[in-house]
Amino acid sequence: MTMFLFWWAVGVVSGTIFASMFEWTLHRYFMHKSVFVKFFRYPFERHTLVHHHVFKYDHTYHLIHEPDKKTIPMAWWNGPVIVAIGQMPFLVWSIFSHKWGVLCGTAMACTLYFTAYEYMHWCMHLPKKRHVERSGIFFRLNGHHLLHHRYMNKNFNVVFPLADLCLGTLLLRSKVAFAQATGPSVPDVQPKIRNAVKIRPGLAS
């Protein structure tokens, strides 16, 4: 039992790190325009063409029109499919190593990671002064995600920006001043340089 718990803990840590990398890969190469779009267009169309079209980085970062609420979360079947695909390498490893605690740990970590992704992403675009929205972690992650809506080639992680840090896509502040969303759970992500030129949203690059 002790060894099972040890390998379960290894699985939890490994699964969390893997989930950050997996989220980054899925977000960058499938949910945004890439060479893979021609083979599987659903994630790109749902995310880039719909979600980013509705929710930008100004006041429209937060829900404006009630019918657009359905564009915030992923489809109900996405979660089980994503978690199942993510478990494949750990399943193969567990079969050969007989360390099933690892698979249990990674399955739990990846499931919780996806759940956190969906809930936090929902709260970011539909704030309701929930308890989680008053936490410092959410505050920082909300600014991290807001910058992704300003720069779609940056900040691909929503939950745990480890992959952004390791793979060179982490952006802490905007490069230029812009009309950003505001609110009690939205940090100021404007550049620190006081004389930064403010540009109109329509001219943003």
List the SSEs and their pairings.
Elements lengths: L1 H28 L12 H13 L23 H20 L2 H26 L10 H15 L11 H5 L39
Helix pairs in contact: 1-4, 3-4
Shape descriptor reads: globular
How far apart are the termini? 55 Å
Structural class: mainly alpha
Number of helices: 6
Main sheet attributes: strand count, strand direction, barrel closure: none
**Uncertain stretches:** none
Question: How many runs of DSSP E, i.e. beta strands?
Answer: 0
Radius of gyration: 18 Å
Spell the H/E element sequence.
HHHHHH
Helical content band: 40-55%
Percentage of residues in strands: under 5%
Instruction: Report the average pLDDT across residues.
Output: 92
What does this structure look like?
- With 205 residues, the chain is mainly alpha-helical.
Offer a few descriptive terms.
0% strand, single chain, 205 residues, 6 helices, 52% helix, globular, mainly alpha
Give the gist of this structure:
The protein is mainly alpha-helical and 205 residues long. Helix content is 52%, strand content 0%.
